[in-house]
């Protein structure tokens, strides 16, 4: 996956402007084996440089996960919304306002979800479509307005840790001009939806 290069997106796709990729980047999300909540992730660049920490809240009804940068700044939270027909997740700002909503849709042969938000870069509504294959090992995230692939997710095949502890590892190619924090959050939503 490291040799794959995605072309730059025509306009920035971001919820946190400070983490916009300047070149194609590969993120590696690894679920923590010894997490008390079972839903914490380390997020690194493929070079090994840590970039985000995602901490799950133990005993949270909404499955709340908090996303932090490496300086310890709390960026936003990921929560599961209840009382919806299909799995729905929200990315919430620290004041509790909704930055983004991810809604899954029915599919017989894969995982489908749509993320909708207002971009601070363009003040326009952005709709990203996530589609995965039958076994949900891979997914593409596409900007509905431009058709540009903003990221590609590749879940590594089962290994002993995944079989016994249900931890996942994702490699994610992110296009230049796309927010790395946004894509990390969408991967966590993808993981949660596939675990439902």
Automatic annotation (TrEMBL):
Please report which protein family the annotation says this sequence is part of.
Belongs to the LOR family.
Q: Which protein are we looking at?
A: Tubby C-terminal-like domain-containing protein
Top-level lineage group: Eukaryota
Q: Which organism is it from?
A: Aspergillus caelatus
Q: Name one Pfam family in it.
A: LOR
* PANTHER family reported for this sequence: PTHR31087, TUBBY C 2 FAMILY PROTEIN
């Amino acid at each position: 996956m490291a040799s794959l290069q995605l072309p730059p997106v025509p306009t920035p796709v971001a919820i946190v402007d400070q983490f916009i990729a300047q070149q194609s980047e590969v993120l590696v999300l690894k679920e923590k084996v010894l997490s008390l909540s079972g839903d914490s992730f380390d997020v690194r660049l493929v070079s090994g440089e840590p970039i985000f920490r995602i901490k799950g809240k133990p005993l949270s009804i909404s499955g709340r996960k908090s996303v932090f940068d490496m300086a310890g700044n709390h960026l936003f939270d990921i929560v599961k919304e209840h009382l919806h027909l299909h799995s729905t997740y929200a990315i919430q700002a620290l004041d509790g306002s909704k930055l983004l909503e991810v809604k899954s849709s029915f599919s017989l042969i894969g995982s489908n979800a749509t993320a909708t938000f207002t971009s601070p870069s363009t003040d326009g509504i952005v709709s990203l479509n996530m589609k995965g294959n039958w076994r949900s090992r891979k997914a593409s995230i596409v900007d509905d307005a431009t058709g540009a692939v903003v990221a590609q997710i590749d879940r590594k095949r089962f290994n002993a840790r995944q079989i016994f502890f249900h931890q996942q590892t994702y490699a994610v190619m992110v296009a230049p001009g796309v927010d790395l924090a946004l894509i990390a959050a969408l991967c966590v939503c993808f993981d949660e939806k596939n675990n439902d």
